[in-house]
Amino acid sequence: MVGILVVAALITWAAVRQFYSDLPLMPWTAIPTVLLLAIGEGFSAWATKARIARKPGTKPVEPLAVARLAALAKASAYAGAVFGGLFAGFALHTVQLLDRETPRTEFIVATGSFLACVLLVCAALYLENACRIPKDPQDQTSK
Length: 143
Known about the structure:
- The chain is an all-alpha fold.
- It is 76% helix and 0% strand.
- It is elongated, with a radius of gyration of 19 Å.
């Protein structure tokens, strides 16, 4: 994930450096959108982990639902890394222009979006981990 993020950041930085004046302003709406996705995936991970562990008061989870959640987690982790790299590359370019108002605003938006993407990747990895089948305690004692 880190490699994808770094490569995307470097490519974006190089592209933004060339075409910054032609680009539209960066929307701030990515921050709350990605944060909501991260919160949703984090909650899904917590609930799924409890259901797979068959904690009291939880319903058993359908295997197909777990497979779908695992696929969502994998896709979200990669998408979060790519978009996080895009926002990081944009922030790398605009950090050099903080003395001007518009680039300063775009730096703040890009940095906030980058942090939201990092949270999404963390939530997605937690969801992916929560979808694993727990180890059987009898297997561990017999070794």
